[in-house]
Structures are given as structure tokens and as C-alpha cells.
């Protein structure tokens, strides 16, 4: 009986696939890349046609030896790494290392890790796609050249330990440019007038906003203009002039791409991009589901296509008809148009089996897995459902020649909205139905409110809106969004406050230096064009080394000029209100590997440094000293006594300042639970708790 070896990237993927193949198959993991460019040098021979100098990654030697040993004892080797450029490159390196002819049928790919998909792929192997490999090589070499030539300049001219990168530098620039816009923004005053009106028959109240004179829309620029209108209408009758009611069909959002999944996970379940991708990876690679065995729950999570396989559409229709009724299933399948330049090699992100509902798999998943799977499942099912029908009413009301406008809506048929409604970056005002109104009807004025407003600057980027901007501008690929954001945060170019991404002084100084001296590196159009060229390499239209050559000549000249001409940039540290207890200077904020910390500006004479102290306003229930907000090594927030390690009090739940337990006088904690907020006593011997505003003192 012939023996076969299948090599994948991760142990969890290996475990899942092993269960789908017979005893004649052995499945091993390469643990990602096994061969790459060296870390200690550029590893690209710019003098000899940009030939990469690949080496076995440090620490992977024994693993490669093990794979070589396993390869000797089998009749056939299948390389089953991920179905993208990076996965193709890993298979290419493995083929060279294990002596596999790359033109032989050794490569297997699957968009989902299910028994049928894996077995089908094993039965249909192909040769390694050299164009895919070359696209990865081109990106890797370009990124390495930029990083290794620019980073030393930043070390010398700005600060040690900095780095520059093709995509990360453009992402940082977008955030810095937005901050410049915010700072340059000049607010403009405007006023609104809101009339609260009562419909006499139903006695229902509703609000109408000032629109203008007659049918002509007008803006109220100051208080005098607003007062003139309100004075004119106060004693006048408010009469319904027009009532327009229309049915509006609303279509569902398409199933997720990598970008839209990251955006929606940020909006709806507060996941950072990195966490979203890590969690999605586990769902793709396989989870042991009670009653179903080990199964990959979602399709491949790095994609920018919205295409859905027809068998998945049939399965979704059957599920929708059975569980929601035939009226919720559209007559024909929904097909969504992917964005321009989208790669259509993979489907959209969807559940591999629509009957594995979130409720059914919940007990087999971690909390994070459940949240993300529920989002993916609901988005996919909704995308295959019938339109919603919303009845929209717009009413114009006349008062002394001035028009007030009210709008309202009600859902006539919920359609896809029964399952899922897409999130938004800005808060939308919820519309309710208006009372029944008739043209010519006089309404009663209950209240008239004049309100001053000022135009607002553009909002800072969040992870969701930055990912959207990167995708729309054609910067990077689905696989690069999360690591790009992680990198610019880790380097201290950007900081996160709540959900907003704010450039640090370091980020702005570095971006300005790059804009002045390496304009192409931080130019959105240049970077997007480079991405298009990489796509052309992937499709076999151009050789990969040609785009590297075209880039390198002008870039090399800019680097040499910059090394000579750029003067040292002095960074100004933000001064805190904390005095150094060793030398008396006011300490400054510094950015380190684990975020901001306090340091003495007298370095190197005074080397005092300490974490930023953030008090909760609550005293420790064990020793009475202040409880501080702290961060674990993984970045998770917890609350602990300042006298740690002498005092071991800590909790993951937020202490509530200004209140005590009414039962025992102890510290109250707000627990992070789904749904209603839950408040409990920190005293383990006290059972006081509040849920949804209700007290329980059993």
C-alpha cells in the first residue's frame, strides 16, 4: 500500500485534515514559512538581477530535517498550504527543500477545510503556480529593499529602532493627513429649528425640522436668522401641505470579504483587525464541533471576492425556506459584483455548512470564535434572502410661508433584516413611523426649539475606516491590512484611543521626512499602482524582476541623496505632570515596546522610568491602597492594588468609584456580561448583585 505525505502550515489544520484522509496519509505542519530572506542582512543581490538569497529560518532546521526524513519514506508528497501567494511560496520553498519537481502534480488547494473539499483537492493535484510565487517574491523583495534601505536613515536622522515599509508608511500617512485636516478645520456656525407637533385625531406627537421658505431649502447661519423664522411661525397655523409615501426596497449587504469582515467585526463586536484574522484562522482550520466532528467552519478568510459557490446558494435557499418561510427566499440567486481589481480565486467568506448555526455550535466554540462565526453566518444567510420593504413617508408642513419637514418609516416586510443589518461608522438616527397625516390638516404646535450647531471636522480613522480606505485606495492586499495596523501601532507611529487612531509626534515627524525625501514611498497612487503591477505578475503578464528594477533605480538615487542632505530631526517629548522622584525634573511620555511609559528627560544622567499610573478612584478591599488600571502581557486590561506584589488583589472586572455595596460596604464591580450590565460585590462572602438595574440581595 503506497504511503502519502501531506504538508500544511499549522498543527490545527493538520489535525483537521488528518481526520478526512485514510490511514495511508501522514499529515505534517511546516509551521508557516520554513525558508525566507535572512534577518541580519538585506538578502537581495541588487548587483546580480535582484536575486533573493534564501536561507532556512533560524530555529526551523530541525523541523526541515524532520520533514525530509518523513519525505523519504513515502511514495507521494502533497503540498497543501494556504490557497494564496504566501501559501504558494511556502509550497515552492518546500518543493525545493524536499527535492520535489515543481512542475509535477504536487500542489493541492481547497477554499474550505471540509471532508469533501479536501478529498476532491487530493484527487485533483496541480503543479506549483510560478506566477503566484513570483508575485509573492516581488512583494517580499520590494518590501525588504524599502525596509533595509530606509530604516537606517530613520535611525540616524530621527530615532533608533524605527522602521519604514511600503504599506505601513502609506497607512501612517493617511492617519497623519487626516490629523492635519482636523487641525486645519475651521468650524462654521449653523442653527436648526425643531417643531414638536401634535396630530389632533391620534393625539400623537412628532418632530419636524425647518427646511426653508416654500420649496426652497435654506440654511440658518446665525441666531438672528433662526430667531426671525421662529418669531414668524410662533403664532401661525402649522398646516400639512404635502404627504408623500413610497415603498423602498432595501437589499442585503454582500457576504464578507477580508476587508468588510474586519470592518464589521470592529463596529459590531469591537474586535481589532489582528484579533479578527486570528480568530477567523481558527474557524477556517477546524474546530471539534459536538455531533459533527472536526470541521472547518468557514471558507478561506483572505479574499476580496463576493462570489458564492452555487451549491452554497442552494443550501442557503433550502435553509431560509425551511426556517423563515418561502417568502424570505428570492426567486433567483443573489450574485454580488466584486470591487474593481478584486482577485476572484476564492469565494467570499461564508459558513461551510449553513445548517451549523451559531446556536448549534456555540458550546463547541470559545467566546471570540462564537461572536465572529455568528457575524459571518448571519451576514451570509442575510445576503441570500429577499429584499426588505420599508414604507417611507415625507411630510412638508407650512407655517407662515416657512416649510418644516418630517420623515418617518415603518417596515412592511423585514426580509433579510430578520437576520442581519449592516453596521455603520456613524451613528444613525432611528426613524419611527409618523402618525397618519392628511394634506390640509392643521397641527398643534407643542414646542419650538432653536439650536446652535457647528460643523464638525472629519472623523479620525478607526481600524474599520482605515481598512476601508486602504482597500478603496488599492493599498495592500486583504492579507496585509491587519499586520499593517499592528505594525504602525507597535512602532509608536500611531496610538489608539478608544477606537480612534491618532498619530504620535514620532509618526508625524517620520511621515513628514518621508514626504519630503521619498515622496513615492508615501504616495497613495504610486503604492496602488505597485499593487496593480503585482497583480499583473500574478496573472503572468509581466516578469517580477522588471517591476523591482523599475522601482530600484530612482529609489537608490533618493536614498543616496537623503543620506547626505537630511539633517537630524529633534523629537519633542510630551511633558507629564509627574515629577521625577530621583532628580526633580518633570517626567516625559515615551513610547516603548508595550506602549506609553514615563521617563526622566535627564537620561542618561538619570535613568528613572516607570509605567503610567491610572487610578480607578477605588481603594483596595484588602489593604486600603489605591486600585490601579493595569495591562497584562497580552494587552488585556485588569485592575490591581498599587502595592502588588505585597497585596495580591486583582480583578478583570471594573471597580465602580463613588459607590459601596449596600449590603456589606465592600467594593462593587461591573462585570462584562452579554446583554444587561451586571454589578456584583467584590467580597466573595457577599452575594449582592444588580442585573439590568434590578437589585438582588438574597
UniProtKB/TrEMBL annotation:
CDD domains: TOP1Ac, TOPRIM_TopoIA_TopoI
The UniProt record lists the keyword Mitochondrion: no
Molecular function per GO: DNA binding; DNA topoisomerase type I (single strand cut, ATP-independent) activity; zinc ion binding
Top-rank lineage group of the source organism: Bacteria
Domain Topo IA-type catalytic, chain residue ranges per copy: 129-560
Active-site residues from the entry: 300 (o-(5'-phospho-dna)-tyrosine intermediate)
Assembly and binders: Monomer.
Listed Pfam families: Topoisom_bac, Toprim, Zn_ribbon_Top1
Site entry (Interaction with DNA), positions: 33, 139-140, 143, 148, 155, 302, 491
Gene: topA
Family stated for the protein in its record: Belongs to the type IA topoisomerase family.
EC numbers, comma separated: 5.6.2.1
Protein's name according to its UniProt entry: DNA topoisomerase 1
Zinc in keyword set: yes
Region (Interaction with DNA): 163-168
Cellular component terms (Gene Ontology): chromosome
Keywords: DNA-binding, Isomerase, Magnesium, Metal-binding, Topoisomerase, Zinc, Zinc-finger
Domain Toprim residue range list: 3-115
Function of the molecule: Releases the supercoiling and torsional tension of DNA, which is introduced during the DNA replication and transcription, by transiently cleaving and rejoining one strand of the DNA duplex. Introduces a single-strand break via transesterification at a target site in duplex DNA. The scissile phosphodiester is attacked by the catalytic tyrosine of the enzyme, resulting in the formation of a DNA-(5'-phosphotyrosyl)-enzyme intermediate and the expulsion of a 3'-OH DNA strand. The free DNA strand then undergoes passage around the unbroken strand, thus removing DNA supercoils.
Amino acid at each position: 500500500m503506497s504511503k502519502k505525505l501531506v504538508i500544511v502550515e499549522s498543527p490545527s489544520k493538520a489535525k483537521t485534515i488528518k481526520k478526512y484522509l485514510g490511514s495511508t496519509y501522514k499529515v505534517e505542519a511546516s509551521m508557516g514559512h520554513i525558508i525566507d530572506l535572512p534577518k541580519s542582512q538585506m538578502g537581495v543581490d541588487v548587483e546580480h538581477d535582484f536575486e533573493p538569497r534564501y536561507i532556512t529560518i533560524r530555529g526551523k532546521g530541525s523541523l526541515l530535517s524532520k520533514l525530509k526524513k518523513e519525505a523519504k519514506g513515502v511514495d507521494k508528497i502533497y503540498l497543501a498550504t494556504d490557497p494564496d501567494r504566501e501559501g504558494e511560496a511556502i509550497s515552492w520553498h518546500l518543493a525545493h527543500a524536499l527535492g520535489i519537481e515543481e512542475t509535477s502534480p504536487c500542489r493541492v488547494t481547497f477554499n474550505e477545510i471540509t471532508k469533501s473539499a479536501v478529498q476532491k483537492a487530493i484527487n485533483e493535484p496541480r503543479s506549483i503556480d510560478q506566477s503566484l510565487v513570483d508575485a509573492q517574491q516581488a512583494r517580499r523583495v520590494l518590501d525588504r529593499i524599502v525596509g533595509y534601505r530606509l530604516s537606517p536613515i530613520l535611525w540616524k536622522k530621527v530615532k533608533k529602532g524605527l522602521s519604514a515599509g511600503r504599506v505601513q508608511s502609506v497607512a501612517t500617512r493617511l492617519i497623519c493627513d487626516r490629523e492635519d485636516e482636523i487641525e486645519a478645520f475651521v468650524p462654521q456656525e449653523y442653527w436648526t429649528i425643531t417643531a414638536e407637533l401634535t396630530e389632533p385625531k391620534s393625539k400623537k406627537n412628532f418632530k419636524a425640522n425647518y427646511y426653508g421658505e416654500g420649496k426652497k431649502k435654506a440654511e440658518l447661519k446665525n441666531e438672528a436668522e433662526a430667531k426671525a423664522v421662529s418669531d414668524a411661525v410662533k403664532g401661525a397655523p402649522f398646516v400639512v401641505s404635502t404627504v408623500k409615501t413610497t415603498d423602498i426596497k432595501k437589499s442585503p449587504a454582500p457576504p464578507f470579504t477580508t476587508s468588510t469582515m474586519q470592518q464589521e467585526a470592529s463596529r459590531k463586536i469591537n474586535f481589532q483587525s489582528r484579533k479578527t484574522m486570528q480568530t477567523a484562522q481558527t474557524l477556517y482550520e477546524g474546530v471539534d464541533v459536538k455531533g459533527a466532528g472536526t470541521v472547518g467552519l468557514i471558507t478561506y478568510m483572505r479574499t476580496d471576492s463576493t462570489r458564492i459557490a452555487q451549491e452554497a446558494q442552494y443550501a442557503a435557499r433550502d435553509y431560509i425556506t425551511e426556517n423563515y418561510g418561502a417568502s424570505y427566499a428570492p426567486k433567483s440567486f443573489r450574485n454580488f459584483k466584486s470591487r474593481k481589481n478584486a482577485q476572484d480565486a476564492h469565494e467570499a467568506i461564508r459558513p461551510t455548512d449553513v445548517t451549523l448555526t451559531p446556536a448549534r455550535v456555540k458550546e463547541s466554540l470559545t467566546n471570540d470564535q462564537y461572536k465572529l462565526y455568528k457575524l459571518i453566518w448571519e451576514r451570509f444567510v442575510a445576503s441570500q434572502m429577499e429584499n426588505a420593504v420599508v414604507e417611507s413617508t415625507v411630510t412638508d408642513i407650512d407655517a407662515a410661508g416657512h416649510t418644516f419637514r418630517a420623515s418617518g418609516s415603518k417596515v412592511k416586510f423585514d426580509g433579510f433584516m430578520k437576520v442581519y443589518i449592516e453596521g455603520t461608522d456613524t451613528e444613525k438616527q432611528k426613524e419611527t413611523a409618523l402618525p397618519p397625516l392628511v394634506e390640509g390638516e392643521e397641527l398643534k404646535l407643542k414646542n419650538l426649539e432653536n439650536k446652535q450647531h457647528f460643523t464638525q471636522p472629519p472623523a479620525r480613522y478607526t481600524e474599520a475606516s482605515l481598512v476601508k480606505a486602504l482597500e478603496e485606495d488599492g493599498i495592500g492586499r486583504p492579507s496585509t491590512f491587519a499586520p499593517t495596523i499592528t505594525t504602525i501601532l507597535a512602532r509608536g507611529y500611531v496610538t489608539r484611543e478608544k477606537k480612534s487612531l491618532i498619530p504620535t509626534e514620532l509618526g508625524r515627524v517620520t511621515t513628514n521626512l518621508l514626504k519630503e525625501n521619498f515622496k513615492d514611498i508615501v504616495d497613495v497612487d504610486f503604492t496602488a499602482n505597485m499593487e496593480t503591477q503585482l497583480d499583473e505578475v500574478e496573472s503572468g503578464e509581466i516578469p517580477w524582476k522588471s517591476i523591482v528594477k523599475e522601482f530600484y533605480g530612482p529609489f537608490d538615487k533618493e536614498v543616496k541623496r537623503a543620506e547626505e542632505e537630511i539633517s537630524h530631526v529633534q523629537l519633542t517629548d510630551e511633558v507629564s505632570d509627574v515629577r521625577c522622584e530621583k532628580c526633580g525634573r518633570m517626567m516625559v511620555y515615551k513610547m516603548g515596546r508595550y506602549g506609553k511609559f514615563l521617563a526622566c528627560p535627564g537620561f542618561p544622567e538619570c535613568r528613572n522610568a516607570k509605567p503610567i499610573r491610572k487610578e480607578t478612584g477605588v481603594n483596595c478591599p484588602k489593604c486600603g491602597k489605591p486600585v490601579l488600571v493595569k495591562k497584562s502581557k497580552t494587552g488585556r486590561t485588569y485592575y490591581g492594588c498599587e502595592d502588588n506584589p505585597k497585596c495580591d488583589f486583582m480583578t478583570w472586572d471594573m471597580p465602580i468609584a463613588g459607590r459601596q455595596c449596600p449590603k456589606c460596604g465592600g467594593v462593587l464591580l461591573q462585570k462584562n456580561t452579554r446583554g444587561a450590565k451586571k454589578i456584583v460585590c467584590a467580597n466573595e462572602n457577599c452575594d449582592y448583585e444588580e442585573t439590568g438595574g434590578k437589585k438582588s440581595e438574597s
